[in-house]
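Re-run with default settings, no changes from the original entry. Doing this only to confirm the output is reproducible before filing.
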Amino acid sequence: MLFVVVPLLVFLSLRARSGSLVAFLWLPGVLAFAVYNYMIYAFSIHFGPLFLVWVAILGLSIFALIGVLVSADMEAIKRMFVSQKLTGTAVFLVVVAVFFGFLWLSEIVPDLLSGSLSTSASDWQIPTNPVHVLDLSFFLPAVVMSGLLLWWRHPLGYATAAGQLVWLALTCLPILVTPLVSNFRGHPAGWIVMLPIGLLFLAILAVLGFLLRRIADKSQMGADEIP
């Protein structure tokens, strides 16, 4: 959060205020990642000296995310993408969201059928896994909806697709860092996740880069500013 998300948030906010549509489309993804993580901190990490800081950042991130979304100029975004068919990006968003959904269900369903407690939640000594709750109830359905809206060439799909890719990319980073930290602290490290999540991270960056190139092509024709 300190070394990646905060600098990125400051940079994108300043660029968006100066009129960059690219920065404006990235910004919701960074804010959504802040909401996601600080919701986990506030509800699932043991009460401690940073609790009020986590709550404050969570509230600010939620209201900032709402502010960005409601201030989006849908007409400008529609004009930017009116002739663009981003079918591949739409399919990618849906497939990644479904992949994570089935991945979480592969743990949840067996635990429910066996009548046991959540395996991952028990390891963390908390009632339920907050990642499962947030992903299945809100964040993954939101990614699917962005993908479908993009498929249907709806302005809201164009407005949220880049942000969803940014959120997915940022979400991969803690998963990739965790085995390294665990190994450094002398705990068992889940190295097995490094390859699939690493490949997924690279794929997300590739799709995001493709999307940004399409935006850049339009920007050269003078469409990079938010009216």
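Confidence is low (pLDDT under 50) at residues 220-227. The chain is about 80% helix and 0% strand.
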